[in-house]
């Protein structure tokens, strides 16, 4: 080959840092999609329960899905679930307080079951007045946090989510998008913040578990790659 000629460059290998960043971005996107669909599913099931008990009323012209809920409710809940589920582990990482309390899928599934039960109680159980119902649901929601979370960041985020979601709901009802029967807290029911708080804790737990599973898979892959690299070096040395 002539001196001036150079070999055609092959596909360049990505450095470990770029590969790691790309892998994290892809994993983050996958987690977001999973959380979105979990949120959509829970929204369909729980919203159907509320409508069957006439707790929420939508105008006839916006009833557009097979589960008899407004078409925009599941996507909005799915988006909120993805944001919350990604935010919880991110806050844990920035605070330097990794959440290690009851980190297994069985605990997460029990948390989801309790959350559905709290929502079910808000629609099915009859109380003498709304104050009793609100206090009961508040106690159950805090009990859910204590049983499955117990972190200061989780409690703070749950309160913030409940406040923000209640304000948004108030604005939606005020503008006639839908309405609540027998509102006793401005335009909504007084127990609604409790549901939002419990929902935030639940999606936060799911997001943390997905993040922990992702870290576990990445660590296992790194170990396998390192073992493979050492094996190749050993074969070359021989």
Automatic annotation (TrEMBL):
Name under which the protein is recorded: Insulin-induced gene protein
One cellular-component annotation, GO: SREBP-SCAP-Insig complex
Provide the alphabetized UniProt keywords.
Answer: Cholesterol metabolism, Endoplasmic reticulum, Lipid metabolism, Lipid-binding, Membrane, Steroid metabolism, Sterol metabolism, Transmembrane, Transmembrane helix
Q: Cite the InterPro entries for this sequence.
A: INSIG_fam
Physiological role? Mediates feedback control of cholesterol synthesis.
GO biological process annotations for this chain's record? cellular response to insulin stimulus; cholesterol biosynthetic process; cranial suture morphogenesis; inner ear morphogenesis; middle ear morphogenesis; negative regulation of fatty acid biosynthetic process; negative regulation of steroid biosynthetic process; NLS-bearing protein import into nucleus
Give a yes or no for keyword Transmembrane helix in this entry.
yes
Summarize subunit and interaction data from the UniProt record for this chain.
Interacts with SCAP; interaction is direct and only takes place in the presence of sterols; it prevents interaction between SCAP and the coat protein complex II (COPII). Associates with the SCAP-SREBP complex (composed of SCAP and SREBF1/SREBP1 or SREBF2/SREBP2); association is mediated via its interaction with SCAP and only takes place in the presence of sterols. Interacts with RNF139. Interacts with RNF145.
Has UniProt tagged this entry with the keyword Membrane? yes
Question: Could you tell me which species this protein originates from?
Answer: Bos mutus grunniens
Q: What membrane topology term does the record carry?
A: Multi-pass membrane protein
Q: Which GO terms describe its molecular function?
A: oxysterol binding; protein sequestering activity
In the record, the note on similarity to other proteins reads:
Belongs to the INSIG family.
Q: Where in the cell is it found?
A: Endoplasmic reticulum membrane
| Coiled-coil segments | none
Q: What residue ranges are annotated as transmembrane?
A: 28-49, 69-88, 131-148, 155-174, 186-206
């Amino acid at each position: 080959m002539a001196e001036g000629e150079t070999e055609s460059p092959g596909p360049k290998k990505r450095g470990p840092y770029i590969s790691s960043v790309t892998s994290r971005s892809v994993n983050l996107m996958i987690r977001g999609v999973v959380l979105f669909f979990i949120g959509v599913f829970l929204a369909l099931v729980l919203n159907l329960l509320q409508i069957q008990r006439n707790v929420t009323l939508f105008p006839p012209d916006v009833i557009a899905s097979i589960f008899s809920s407004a078409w925009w409710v599941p996507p909005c809940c799915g988006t909120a679930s993805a944001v919350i589920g990604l935010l919880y582990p991110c806050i844990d990482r920035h605070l330097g307080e990794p959440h290690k309390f009851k980190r297994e899928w069985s605990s997460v599934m029990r948390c989801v079951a309790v959350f559905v039960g709290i929502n079910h109680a808000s629609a099915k159980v009859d109380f003498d007045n709304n104050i009793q119902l609100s206090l009961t649901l508040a106690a159950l929601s805090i009990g859910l946090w204590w049983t499955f979370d117990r972190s200061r960041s989780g409690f703070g985020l749950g309160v913030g989510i409940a406040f923000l979601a209640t304000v948004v709901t108030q604005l939606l009802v005020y503008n006639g998008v839908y309405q609540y029967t027998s509102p006793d807290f401005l335009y909504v029911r007084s127990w609604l913040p409790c549901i939002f708080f419990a929902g935030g804790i639940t999606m936060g737990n799911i997001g943390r578990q997905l993040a922990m599973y992702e870290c576990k898979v990445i660590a296992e892959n790194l170990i396998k790659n390192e073992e493979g690299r050492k094996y190749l070096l050993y074969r070359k040395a021989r």
